[in-house]
Design a protein that fits this description.
The protein is of the alpha/beta class. The chain is built from 10 helices and 16 strands. The chain has one domain: Alpha-Beta Barrel (TIM Barrel), CATH 3.20.20.70. The N and C termini lie far apart (37 Å). Bound molecules: flavin mononucleotide.
Amino acid sequence: MNLNTTIAGINLQTPLVMASGTFGFGEDFARFDDFDDSAVGAISLKGTTLEPRLGNPPPRIAETPAGVLNAIGLQNPGVDAVVRHVLPRLEAGGLTTPLFANIAGETVEEYAEVARRFSTAPNIAALEVNISCPNVRHGGLAFGADPAEAARVVRAVRQATDLPVITKLSPNTGRLVEVAEACVDAGSDALSLINTLVGMVIDLRSRRPLLGNQTGGLSGPAIRPVAVAQVFRVYAALGHRLPIIGMGGVSDADGAFEIILAGGAAVGVGTALFFNHRAPREIADGLERHLADAGLSRLSDAVGAAHRQSRIGGGGP
Ligand SMILES: Cc1cc2nc3c(=O)[nH]c(=O)nc-3n(C[C@H](O)[C@H](O)[C@H](O)COP(=O)(O)O)c2cc1C
């Protein structure tokens, strides 16, 4: 069965992309003897900024009934440390999986500079521009919720690099399709969505918000139907122009296949890795079964198939 897929000219052996922030810089999972690299199509590295960041004050993670709320606040060692130390280590270790550098910034210029520095690394296949982080005071969502601001970031990154540009979109806006269109017009080669949904947990003992940042981003199984709907909408509007990496709450092959049918040419797997490091292998095997059941020999034939069979166009109840 052929699970190959292509994102912005990059060939992935499976459609499974390890979602940014849930797979570190690719090294953490090496300690599991039974982690199966061959199920992984690409790795999206932890969001990286120009300067090192310590992130938000703790607590930064809260569990919820069907997901996780996080407010890490883009903790990272800064682009120079990643380019000089982390990426050479990955290369020396023989990692051949395509790597996406997930970049963030407080200003348009910062995004462009981070893009420029990552472009000097030999083993970065694409840049994933995170304009959707809900957990930082400056940047992040301020860019991702507004089409003109989003386009400014993408245009600046486009001019700063020859690498393919993937723009990571936020579900925390009523203008998702407008933002997506603006990013495509500004030169994005692919889109990834969704990032986390803003949420809050109140600590019943202190009767105050539990997270140090008060709000956090919700991920995990709870958000999967939201992700499927958002991927479906963006594919309907833009699927003919560029590929989509769909993600949000995928923990099994059923969820991954839903994302593909909605329009994902690739599928991000994030929070599921925290409770099942075998998820990528299980999902890849299950996808092969789904394709066989549907009588399809190639994954690409299933991408967006829900549109061709859909009776209702968009909208809610
Ligand atoms: C702990 C944590 C850290 C994250 N950090 C980033 C990040 O640095 N950059 C980014 O674009 N997305 C980040 N995300 C969002 C994920 O990449 C993904 O879009 C989201 O969690 C939805 O997918 P999931 O439900 O499969 O986790 C983070 C998510 C989690 C749970």
